[in-house]
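Backbones bend. Our protein:
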Amino acid sequence: MRRVFIGISAVIAALAVLVGGADFGTSVYAEYQLSQAVRRDAGLDADPFVAILGFPFAPQLRRDRYDEVEIKAPGAAQPLIGKALLEATMHSVDLTDATWKFRPGAKIPVATLESRVIIGNVYLGRYLGIRDLMVEAPPVETNDATGGTTESGISDSHGLVFTGTPQGYGKRVSVSVDVSMSGADHRTLEITPTGVLTGPDTADEDVPDAERDKVLTAFRGSLPQQRLPFGLTPTNWGARGSDVIIEGIAEGMTVTLAEFGSP
């Protein structure tokens, strides 16, 4: 009898592995289909990373609704700065019109949509003329266990730490910076330096009063045309890691994949 039970258990385990493997394989193929569709419709230069979250996958297909989808397009062309990482997170994605193969131009209802433009410190530094630019979250958040950030990890928009060597100064300095969005279309990133920082976790380089305005001006910038994927209006902006990030969150959206990229 014991051998029978062991045999049955082994068969059940084998079937579970087969079913799980088939489910995983189907999800990988569906992710490939979506990645190809985003590249095609949004006019990207490369396949974006796509993840369809939630297990098991097969029930999501049967009900024509994905629980959660992530799309990430690193190195996407972005006006003025050259390249940026474009991200979107889609919750409760209705596939009724698009189907799981995402036919061109299909309407896709989404319960909650998050989209982000993530500007790396290297590209932002080139735009500002500070080749060694480093970006950090405000010190109070770096040292705060609660983080003080949004769910996606965006810092507060005030008191970011920019460190680098301004043109014509020759010394590496740290500056406190506020970021904001402006313009009628809310697509212009404003970078406003507010003061020189010294002490721990900074360049610890004081700036003479006669040079202070020139140094602060070197960190000042205005970066227009920062359109979010799917055209969302920005709701949060700040730092994440060594990047500046702009995020928009909206409820009850209906989009097409073409809207992921620039118009």
